[in-house]
Structure formats: C-alpha cells, structure tokens
C-alpha cells in the first residue's frame, strides 16, 4: 500500500492512498462491503454524516476489533460535517454524533463536506426544505467561523486532522489564510473527465493532499439522483467504457477501473472508489504491481473535459446555486 503524508499539528500522519468510499449503500450491503474491504487489506474508510452509513460502519469496525483482526491505530477513518451543520456552534455536536455511530473516540480526518449550508431539521438532522421543494438556504453561515470550530476538534483530540471537501480555489485560500490549523486534505470529484489541474496545483502549493471521490465516474449516481431528487443528467458519462481506457485495460491485463485508479494514484492523488462487490473491492486496491508509461499517462490526461466533465454540481439540491458559497458559479454563468 502507498501512503500520502499529511500536514498535521505536532505529528506526522500518513493516509493510505486507496480507501473505501461508502456513499449510497443499504446497511446489509454496506456491512458486507466494509468487512470485505478490511479483509482485502483496506485500512482507509471514508464516510460522512450525510451518507447514513456511519452506524453500520461502526458495527463492522467494532466486530473487526473484537475479533483481534486489527487495532484502531491501524485504520484511517474520515467523516464529514453535514451541509445542515455548517455553523460554528454545530461542529462539535455533529462530530460527536458521528463518533457515537462509528463507535470511535476520534476520527483521523474530519472534513467540512460542502461550503454552502442549509437550515437543519432538528428532528431528522437533514436539511430543511421549502414548500416548493427547494432547500432552505442558511446564508448567514460563515465558513471561517466554522473552520475555527473545526480547529477546536483537533485541539480536543476528537479529530487528528481536518480538511475541506467540494470547496473551490478561492474558498480554499480564504480558509487557509485565516487558519491556525491548515487544511490537510481537500476531497473533490476527480476522475479522467474532470482532472482539476488548477485546483491540484493550488493544493500542491499549499501542501494540501488531494482525495478523489468518484474516481471511476460514479456509474450509479444518475439513478440515485433520479430516485432521490427527481433530477438526472443527460448523456451521463461512461468513463470506464471509453476506448482509451479499454485499450489500456487490454494492454496491461488490468480492469478499466484499475487503469483509471492507477492514473490518479500515480500522480499522488488519494482515491476512494465505492463498491459493494467483493471482487471489485479487491481489484480496486490491487494497483501497485504495475505502472502506466508516460505515454499512457498522457493519453489518459487528454480525456479531461474540464467543467463539462463534472457530475456532482449539487444542482439536485434545488435552489443551491443561490447560496453565496455555492462553489461552481462559473459553471452556471457559462450556461
């Protein structure tokens, strides 16, 4: 396994370069997937309050520890502050709820999941919605104040380090310039069709590690968007089926998924592919017995579509583009 060193306060942290993504799965499916991942050698689990998978993950980790298969310090666990908790006064309580579900005393990495925020339904801890189905925007939240509360979680020992997710370059610099504890990680959508070169260059300059979610293009996302939000993307991309990817798959004797993941890992990008299939879970971490040639890396680089390759623009949250911290306003303005 390859590890990426993180900038952290008074300690050296190493983050496994491959982790298990846990978005969008039913409890029984998630339980089997996490167990299969641990048995396959995964030591990095990525989750979030919004995913509703923390409780199941906690049960699996507790069983794994109790059977003597590993110790807490063997694992790297990431979770995230939900978009309905993006207020300084909510950070600690949401992290404590996550820790209770995960049956852990600390997480290795706590991320602000999204820069924009919604008002919270205190009964369900989900975003409030308006009568027209739009989401109730909290336009008074302040990401700098929220970050200061994130820093307090490091000081209290509930999070070993902290970071950002789905923030744009301007937002990252704003947080970085105000921070006592600098962001250690940025997690964003990143794959062959959306390679985020400018954002990655900024993170390299600021010594922020980059984690790619949807590194395979999230093939099941459009079905989820449609069923949960009545929202769908026309011409949903099939990155795994692109001729360049399939040809390289044949050349190296690897799956298309392994080719796409290796392309990212070879550039020191952390990847968190999601799968519930035990065979795919195993193959997604089996990336370190081959290396793509410079020519083949360049061929994959040419697949970049820039903003046209983005899948997760969050417009399934009806009305989100009106929030002052919506991170992809250039994409909207270009339409």
Précis, in short:
The chain is of the alpha/beta class and 335 residues long. The protein contains 12 helices and 12 strands.
Biggest sheet descriptor:
8 strands, parallel
> How many β-strand stretches?
12
Shape: globular
User: What is the CA-CA span between the terminal residues?
Assistant: 42 Å
Radius of gyration: 19 Å
| Helix fraction by DSSP (H/I, runs of at least 4) | 25-40%
Beta strand %: 5-15%
Instruction: Tell me, rounded to a whole number, the average pLDDT.
Output: 93
Low-confidence stretches: none
What sequence of helices (H) and strands (E) makes up the elements?
EEEHEHEHEEEHEHEHEHHHEHHH
The neighbouring-strand order within the major sheet is 3-4-5-6-9-10-11-12
Structural class: alpha/beta
Number of separate helices:
12
Task: Summarize the structure in words.
There is one protein chain. The mean pLDDT is 93. The protein has helices at 27-40, 54-66, 88-102, 143-156, 169-178, 197-205, 221-229, 243-252, 256-265, 278-285, 294-301, 329-333, and strands at residues 3-6, 13-16, 20-21, 44-46, 76-81, 107-112, 120-121, 126-127, 159-165, 185-189, 209-213, 270-271. The protein has twelve helices and twelve strands. The protein is of the alpha/beta class and 335 residues long. It has an eight-stranded parallel beta sheet with strand order 3-4-5-6-9-10-11-12, covered by helices on one side. A two-stranded antiparallel ribbon has the order 1-2. It is globular and about 55 Å long. α1 (27-40) packs across α10 and α2 (54-66) packs across α3 (88-102). The relative contact order is 0.14.
């Amino acid at each position: 396994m390859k590890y990426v060193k993180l900038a952290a306060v008074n300690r050296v942290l190493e983050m496994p370069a491959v982790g298990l993504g846990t978005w969008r799965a039913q409890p029984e499916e998630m339980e089997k997937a996490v167990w299969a991942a641990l048995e396959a050698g995964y030591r990095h689990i990525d989750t979030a309050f919004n995913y509703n998978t923390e409780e199941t993950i906690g049960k699996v980790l507790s069983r794994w520890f109790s059977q003597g298969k590993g110790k807490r310090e063997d694992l790297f666990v990431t979770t995230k502050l939900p978009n309905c908790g993006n207020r300084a006064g909510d950070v600690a309580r949401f992290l404590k709820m996550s820790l209770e579900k995960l049956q852990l005393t600390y997480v290795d990495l706590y991320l602000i999941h999204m820069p924009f925020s919604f008002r919270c339904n205190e009964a369900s801890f989900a975003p409030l919605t308006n009568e027209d189905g739009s989401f109730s925007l909290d336009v008074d939240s302040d990401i700098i104040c929220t970050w200061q509360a994130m820093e307090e979680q490091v000081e209290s020992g509930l999070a070993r380090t902290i970071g950002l997710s789905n923030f744009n370059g301007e937002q990252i610099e704003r947080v970085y310039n105000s921070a006592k504890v600098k962001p250690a990680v940025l997690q964003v959508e990143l794959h062959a069709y959306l390679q985020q070169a400018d954002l990655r260059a900024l993170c390299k300059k600021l010594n922020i590690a980059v984690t790619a979610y949807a590194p395979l293009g999230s093939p099941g996302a459009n079905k989820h968007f449609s069923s949960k939000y009545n929202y769908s993307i026309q011409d949903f991309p099939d990155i795994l089926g692109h001729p360049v990817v399939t040809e390289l798959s044949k050349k190296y004797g690897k799956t298309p998924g392994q080719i796409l993941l290796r392309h990212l890992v070879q550039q020191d990008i952390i990847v968190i592919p999601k799968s519930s299939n035990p065979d795919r879970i195993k193959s997604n971490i089996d990336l370190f017995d081959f290396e793509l040639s410079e020519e083949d890396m360049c061929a994959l680089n040419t697949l970049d579509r820039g903003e046209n390759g983005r899948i997760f623009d969050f417009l399934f949250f009806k009305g989100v583009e009106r929030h002052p911290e919506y991170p992809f306003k250039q994409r909207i303005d270009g339409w």
